[in-house]
Amino acid sequence: MTRAEVPMLEVANLVKHFPIRSGIFIKRTVGQVQAVDGVSFTVYKGQTVALVGESGCGKSTTARAILRLTEPTSGRVVLDGVEVLKLGKENLRRARRDMQIIFQDPYASLNPRMTIRQILSEKYQLMGTPVTRSTISDLLDTVGLAEEYADRYPHEFSGGQRQRVGIARAIALNPKFVVLDEPVSALDVSIQAQIVNLLEDLQDELGLTYLFIAHDLSVVRHISDRVAVMYLGGIVEIADRDDLFDRPYHPYTQALISAVPIPDPRVERARETIVLRGDVPNPANPPSGCRFRTRCWKFEQLTEAERMVCVEHRPALAEVPGGTGHRAACHYAAVREVVRA
Asked: Which residues share a beta bridge with 181?
């Protein structure tokens, strides 16, 4: 198998429910917030898989559960052959060398009381790895920062520079897998391009595998190899990047892609934007059957019998016609009209 065909991360039926508690003196569990509910996907070595969807759909919770920053309720996570959810405290600590995260907010993710040198050295010290001045200098150079920045504090840096420090911290111990939790959403557009290019260069140089969490589909189309679309705690469609953008099957994916601006004014004016009605349902009380049916723009066009299938049965993530690994969780995906950008 080539590098791209070797699984780096395998996630199967991942579930994370948060209990809802009530009572003043005696706390009782009265419900569950189903933040992540049965997520499964695979990321191959050297690949970038993007998780996309509206805010609150469970993207970041999925990533944190994979890294065990939040303990999953159930499921299976295998990172380069290691069962992550079965690791004890000490083995998990050692395994963190191989899995790292770059956080969304560069202003909140760095300790304001520590210099950049202290922030980067801390990672080595926690793992018992020797660190020298040249180690920090080389690390800063890798992310495009000068050595003289090492003894400054985070408040002396711009947002883009802080995010470069966050990237340096993530790659310090040569990880195999990195979660990018909306790493450019808090940055100016001009800086976003620089950070995305840096991430791509580091992936090529260090052989990194990425799970890229985002809601900006323009960035996703540029950086990802494969895209998984999430809605209300579950994956509703997953496919290779070009296949998903050119042939979206699920009506939710079609709505998301129709909202992506096109630089050609004539094409932009001619196409139809799908506006979803209502709000995302409460994850503590999700709809029966297909969770998207309450906002589905095609639901009203179905017959009464077809609607009952949507109401009563949750669709499985199944292969769509074409045999390209493109899967969608929709009872009627094969007969739905495809919206082309």
From this structure: 213
Give the number of domains in the chain. Answer: 1
Segment 278-283 long-range contacts (CB within 8 Å, at least 24 positions apart): 280/54, 280/56, 280/57, 280/231, 280/232, 281/232, 283/33, 283/34, 283/35, 283/56, 283/58, 283/232, 283/233
- Look at residues 175, 340, 318 and name the one whose alpha carbon lies nearest to residue 331: 318
Between CA 133 and CA 138, with CA 137 as vertex, the angle to 5 degrees is 120
pLDDT digit string, tens, across residues 263-279: 767 766 777 788 888 88
* Contact by Cβ (8 Å): 136, 121: yes
Domain that holds residue 296: 249-341
Residue ranges of the alpha helices (H) in the chain? 59-67, 89-95, 116-126, 133-142, 159-171, 189-206, 217-223, 241-246, 251-258, 265-270, 304-312
User: Do residues 193 and 116 lie in contact, with contact meaning Cβ atoms separated by under 8 Å?
Assistant: no
**Stretches in the chain below the pLDDT threshold 70:** 1-4, 264, 267-268, 323, 334-341
Q: 257 lies in a domain?
A: yes
Contact 295, 310 (CB under 8 A): no
**Region of residue 23 (left: phi > 0; alpha: psi -120 to 50; beta: else):** left
pTM for this model (two decimals)? 0.91
- Residue 285: inside a domain, yes or no? yes
Residue closest to 50 by CA, chosen among 249, 256, 206: 256
User: Are 171 and 206 in contact, with CB atoms under 8 Å apart?
Assistant: yes
